[in-house]
Amino acid sequence: xxxxxxxxxxxxxxxxxxxxxxxxxxxxxxxxxxxxxxxxxxxxxxxxxxxxxxxxxxxxxxxxxxxxxxxxxxxxxxxxxxxxxxxxxxxxxxxxxxxxxxxxxxxxxxxxxxxxxxxxxxxxxxxxxxxxxxxxxxxxxxxxxxxxxxxxxxxxxxxxxxxxxxxxxxxxxxxxxxxxxxxxxxxxxxxxxxxxxxxxxxxxxxxxxxxxxxxxxxxxxxxxxxxxxxxxxxxxxxxxxxxxxxxxxxxxxxxxxxxxxxxxxxxxxxxxxxxxxxxxxxxxxxxxxxxxxxxxxxxxxxxxxxxxxxxxxxxxxxxxx
Length: 321
What we know:
The chain has helices at 2-6, 18-24, 32-59, 68-96, 98-104, 108-113, 117-132, 134-154, 157-160, 162-166, 176-211, 215-244, 253-266, 275-284, 291-319. By secondary structure, it is mainly α. Helix 3 crosses helix 4 and helix 7 (117-132) packs across helix 11.
């Protein structure tokens, strides 16, 4: 079964491909002292993030009088969000210096003139980030699976009628079976978006790599990207909070778009992995129950767009001397 699944993966994305193997082994394996120090640092950072999440949840009053599901969501939301932001920034930074690195090492002309050399070089750099940071992706997915499990547990509340209560008088009214399907779309999208979102950032980095010359220009672009990325997330969080708190009661379709943007490019659907809060969105925003389906479609389109952008970066890089 595993062989049949891996057989669908392009040759350049397999770990045994020469270009990818060279990319992953391009740095010397650190000594065991360094590896243990990194592991300890990860544990400390993870602990500090959880403490921060606990502090923010306590300050906001979301721990008092709440059940275990709501408390867990309140504690995990910001630590998970804080992990995802550096991941997107690292993906852009990791690929944006690809061509400049090979030029500096005097190997770019050789790669560019070799049949498919430029393509394999850029694709290997793009896919390598998923291998290099698989541990970080694993943490993000495991925590999201935990939140999905809690969402499924919530469905058993009120003798299994909780979903029926949440869908009363929403727009549009849907049958319980349809609402379950729409929730499954959200769960699927929340697991896919971290990969497609990171893939888009890495693909954009490849475009920058293909057209930018000079370390100063590269540094300025990376700094600008960080400012825009963090600023956009903060703006979407604030706008979505204003909408849910009634500051924007007549937002209509605009409110739906804000919530969609938050899930699509802000926190990758993380805020919606809480059934009670998501049910409130259904009541506040017309067609809010369709957000999960919209996010799944967006994730699939984003995957196709990441491939298209990577192909564009390859064509630009091939022209670079």
